[in-house]
Amino acid sequence: MRALLARLPRRPWTAALTAAVLSASALTVMPASGADTGCRVDYTVNKWADGYTAQIKVTNLGPALDGWRLSWTYTGDQRVTSAWNATVTQTGGSVVATSKNWNGTLPTGGAAEFGLQGTWRSADPAPSDFALNGVPCGDDGTTPPTTPPTTPPPTTPPPGEDCAGTVICSDFEDQTGSTPSGDWRFTAPDCQGAGTAAVDTAVAHGGSRSLRVDGRAGYCNHAFVAATADLSSVGPVVHVRMWVRHTTALPSAHVTFVSLPDTSQNGRSLRVGGQNGALQWNRESDDATLPEQSPAGVALSRPLPTGSWQCLRFAIDTRAPALDTWLGDEPVPGLHADGVPTQDVDRQWLARAVPPRPTALRLGWESYGAGDDTLWFDDVAVGSAPLDC
Prior knowledge:
The protein is mostly beta strands. It is built from 1 helix and 27 strands. It has one helix spanning 295-299, and strands at residues 23-29, 39-48, 51-60, 65-66, 69-73, 79-84, 87-91, 94-98, 105-106, 111-119, 131-132, 135-136, 168-170, 184-187, 196-200, 210-215, 223-227, 237-246, 255-261, 269-275, 278-283, 289-290, 310-317, 322-327, 330-331, 362-367, 373-383. Strands 13, 15, 16, 18, 23, 24, 25 and 27 form an 8-stranded antiparallel sheet that branches. A 7-stranded antiparallel sheet has the order 14-17-26-19-20-21-22. A 5-stranded antiparallel sheet has the order 1-2-3-10-6, with no helix packed on it. Strand 19 and strand 20 form a beta hairpin.
């Protein structure tokens, strides 16, 4: 066990948060006056300097569809970089979003929602030429239904489908005792104290079991459960998805609840946790954070809600110091690094140009001062392809 280096506590900023950098606007493409319509699109965008996210809801007002394709045109210089709940491609200004295998059924009156993240430089007007399966919204000659369908389309993948081809796919239902076993092992990197981990049969996201960690404050109370799977061959982008629930709001001091040993840091870890009350990435080798711990940077992150299950997803690029983070289906702007420095977000992170190479996954709790918490993890998956919530 390597010696533990002393770590100076970080001083959380105490000034009030400045106004959030994000701005939000919404566009609804409605039926044309006096005309029947084939679809309705609600396009809601959150934007900041050089970037944006869009949440898109398409409602089918024509005949039932078995597989859908929504197209539109960006008249500014927007470029889509990632998407969720749909496959999105872009050629020039033309963008096409196609359904997943689990949300392609769209009955008359039914709706599907998906989202995307992108960049822009000089202009980002909202699109206005949406078409569903080639039919422009507002021009197909059908009569909109007077009542909604009785069976809405699925909004989440059927159980088991989202883990196909992954290296880790665990709902902990194979655990037979209270001590993690099989593909999971308790570990306490650096030092062990009062923190504990167990298989819980009282609280679960799906099924009847989850992984519970009782995290304790103090520098030597590390408590993690590590997957035995080797992630060295996953990539070139490592996709991680988990459901997590916890009891205590993230503190102002630095804490970690996900740790990924990284060969590019000589085995030191990429860490996901919190500081100043919001989610953050931390790099163990140089203590860099994403976002930067300024009021403006932290305002671009998000807290981790307590008392409910939250879907947390990461995409770690092993070819560049780039990554993305989603809380639910919403990308977190402050937890995004794309190689282009953004003030208050990733300039500190990009100071190290060596791409990460995670080799393992640990779930648990590591505090560097104050901060007790009880956490549950469930439905964990790691693979080379994007993973849905």
